[in-house]
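Researcher: I'm preparing a figure for a lab meeting and need a structural model of a single chain. I don't have an experimental structure, so a prediction will have to do for now. The sequence is pasted below. Please return the structure as tokens so I can convert it later.
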Amino acid sequence: MTVDTDPKPTRKVGAAGLGGAAAIVLAWALGLAGVDVPPEVSAAFATLLAFAAGYLTPEPGHRTDAT
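Model: Understood. Here is the structure written out token by token.
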């Protein structure tokens, strides 16, 4: 295993952060539209969206084809 000394976050970490932030903005917009979103649901949605974004984003330098 190699140790990455670059202080910048990887694409996976950035995608997960953006996914979580997008979920919170969506919950806020729903609140403005009159939809009552409980805080627990907002938190769960942010967690799920952040996980999905991080999971679906490939590792830098990782090939996704089978050849």
